[in-house]
Amino acid sequence: MAVIIPTVLAVMMFSYIIYPEIFQTAFLAAVGTAIFTLVPASLAQKLHYQCWARNTMPQRIVSGLIGLIYISLVAVISVSLISASKDLEPQQPTTLAIIASLLLGLIIVMVYNSRTRERFGHMDIRFFHRSPAEMINEIQNILKERGEEFKITGRGRRTLITLETHKVVIIVVPQLWSSTEIMIECADASGAEVSSIIKRGLDTRARPGRATLLGP
């Protein structure tokens, strides 16, 4: 996504100035490429139903956005310079607004990346074909059996189960078709054991006889 889509967009913009006759083809190629990226995203999501894994998707999306914005910005500036040589007016307010928006977007994404990189590095994720209410109930049962103290809070669509003693936060997010996304954030090494127990417990209870676990 970070390379293919911006490249196709750049070709589309350059074709508008240099080869107008292929602009429509380049535009359709850009749209088709953008739609095609949904395929690997869908496959990646299906894998999350099978096992626990590090929540690397946000960082991949951020990396893709940085590449997308950067290459698009370079393409817009390049097209503006080329259009100037053809007696067009690249200094139009719309062009300047696009450049400013891309620069602002790049800054925002980079700031977000610097603030959340470490957090996502300590977060595991898995999807389950069960409703959020069922998964919350299973998590509570696991914690009660261990005698753990926890607090449940709601934050929009999300439900947070916090174990302050172990610095562990379990995030339950409803998905389509009565599925649930579970994220376990372990901010300290002291919570590694309880995180592992929760993951194994959910594997066993949510999919009896088909437990799968990656990582600690």
Question: Helices and strands in order, then pairings?
Answer:
Layout: H1 4-17, H2 23-36, H3 38-47, E1 53-54, H4 57-85, H5 93-121, E2 123-128, H6 132-146, E3 151-155, E4 158-163, E5 168-174, E6 180-186, H7 192-206
Antiparallel strand pairs: 1-2, 2-6, 3-4, 4-5, 5-6
Write up this protein.
By secondary structure, this protein is an alpha+beta fold. It has 2 domains: 4-45 and 56-117; 122-206, Kinase associated domain 1, KA1 (TATA-Binding Protein). It has helices at residues 4-17, 23-36, 38-47, 57-85, 93-121, 132-146, 192-206, and strands spanning 53-54, 123-128, 151-155, 158-163, 168-174, 180-186. Strands 1-2-6-5-4-3 form a 6-stranded antiparallel β-sheet. A hairpin with a 4-residue loop joins β4 (158-163) and β5 (168-174). It is elongated. The two termini are 30 Å apart.
In short:
By secondary structure, this protein is of the alpha+beta class. Helices cover about 60% and strands about 15% of the residues.
